[in-house]
UniProtKB/TrEMBL annotation:
Main location group: cytoplasm
GO MF, one annotated term: chorismate mutase activity
InterPro entries assigned to the protein according to its UniProt record, in alphabetical order: ACT-like_dom_sf, ACT_dom, Chor_mutase/pphenate_deHydtase, Chorismate_II_sf, CM_dom_sf, CM_II_prokaryot, G/b/e-P-prot_chorismate_mutase, Preph_deHydtase
Domain Chorismate mutase: 1-89
Location of the protein in the cell: Cytoplasm
Enzyme Commission no: 4.2.1.51, 5.4.99.5
Record's keyword annotation contains Zinc: no
Function, in words: Catalyzes the Claisen rearrangement of chorismate to prephenate and the decarboxylation/dehydration of prephenate to phenylpyruvate.
The protein, known as: Bifunctional chorismate mutase/prephenate dehydratase
Matching PANTHER family: PREPHENATE DEHYDRATASE P PROTEIN (PTHR21022), PREPHENATE DEHYDRATASE-RELATED (PTHR21022:SF19)
Chain's gene name: pheA
Keyword field: Amino-acid biosynthesis, Aromatic amino acid biosynthesis, Cytoplasm, Isomerase, Lyase, Multifunctional enzyme, Phenylalanine biosynthesis
Occurrences of domain ACT (ranges): 281-359
Length: 361
């Protein structure tokens, strides 16, 4: 009796052979592009081209594959292409298995090289010194807001934001000690804050201790009796430490936004799909005039430029002096954006362009 699955499997095998041929042909073309880029000093990783490819393939997609799955496949294809064009080294907040590591892999795929860096400020330094090509840093969380160290790092750095990526964050309590005997909980300050209500219910007397990263917290908890860590389940698997409780974050839609930073800015993708980040200081304008914050925002509103974020941080230069971190829709090279920034510079002592980059689909 013949196998009814055999003809279908033979068709799948034929498709696989064709797919492998097409993939190798595509990567060979990418290698040729890499040669041309190296000869002209061109940029290997081009975020606006990446964005265009994702939009092109999703527009072509007629199913049944979901767009998310198609993009994940193309992420790895482009990762392999980049590796053929020129090896890239991506710095991330380490050690291995942090959320920043996961975000880096989501953005750049499995074919590039990665380097674990101890602190966010060290990531800036590594790229500035040419020890890494790009870095990825957490910038804000949907539950706890901005990462202060990351914002402060942009004030003194000339690096540019070239891309962004969002990652859903699911925290686990990780320990070799039973829940009732845990008296210390280690993690990054943001992770501790994102699980505050759960910790108050289940470990109200435990001491909460900030660490450089969630993965570092797991390393500490592994060797410390009575200690636990808050981190991703992947970190528990890597370190070989049991998971005591899963999904302990206070918000189910807990998401962190990450910036990709590098030396060269990204070009425009157009069509309202760019975001520009700025840091602005009002200086003496804020003290001398009421309505100075509104005045700072007017150049954008008058030109139809949408503001998606405005956040203040102490400048650390003098009391009650603030820096404003702003996200607006559009690219730095757009004529309306240039006009708005030129107007800002007439009365603001600091208007610094942090970067323009594609919005996330």
């Amino acid at each position: 009796m013949s196998d009814p699955l055999q003809p279908i499997r033979e068709q799948i095998d034929a498709h696989d052979r064709h797919l492998v041929e097409l993939l190798n042909s595509r990567l060979a073309l990418a290698a040729e592009i890499g040669k041309l880029k190296r000869s002209t000093g061109g940029q290997i990783y081009v975020p606006e081209r990446e964005d265009a490819v994702f939009r092109k393939v999703t527009a072509l997609n007629q199913g049944p594959i979901k767009n998310e799955a198609l993009q994940a496949i193309y992420r790895e294809i482009m990762s392999a292409a980049i590796a053929l064009e020129k090896p890239l080294l991506i710095a991330y907040l380490g050690p291995e298995a942090t959320y920043t590591h996961a975000a880096a892999i989501k953005k750049f795929g499995a074919s590039v090289d990665y380097s674990a860096i101890a602190t966010i400020s060290d990531i800036f330094t590594a790229i500035e010194k040419g020890e890494a090509d790009y870095g990825i840093i957490p910038i804000e969380n949907s539950t706890e807001g901005s990462v202060r160290e990351a914002l402060d790092g942009f004030v003194d750095s000339d690096l540019k934001v070239v891309a962004q990526v969002y990652l859903e964050i699911n925290h686990a309590l990780i320990s070799s000690t039973p829940l009732a005997q845990i008296d210390k909980v280690y993690s990054k300050d943001q992770a501790l804050a994102q699980c505050r209500a759960w910790l108050q219910r289940h470990l109200p007397h435990a001491q909460l201790i900030d660490t450089a990263s969630t993965a570092k917290a797991v390393q500490i908890a592994k060797d410390t009796p009575g200690a636990a860590a808050i981190a991703a389940e992947l970190a528990a698997q890597v370190q070989g430490v049991p998971v005591v409780a899963k999904n302990i974050q206070d918000q189910n839609d807990n998401t962190t936004r990450f910036f990709v930073v590098g030396k060269r800015p990204s070009g425009p993708v157009g069509g309202g799909r760019d975001i520009t980040s700025l840091v602005v200081s009002l200086g003496d304008e804020a003290a001398a005039n009421s309505g100075s914050l509104l005045k700072m925002l007017m150049p954008f509103g008058q030109r139809g430029i949408n503001l998606s974020k405005v956040e203040s941080r102490p400048s650390k230069k003098r009391p009650w002096d603030y820096l404003f971190f702003i996200d607006v829709t559009g690219h730095y090279e757009d004529p309306a954006m240039k006009e708005a920034i030129a107007e800002l510079r007439k009365f603001c002592p600091l208007v610094k362009w942090l970067g323009s980059y594609p919005s996330v689909q």
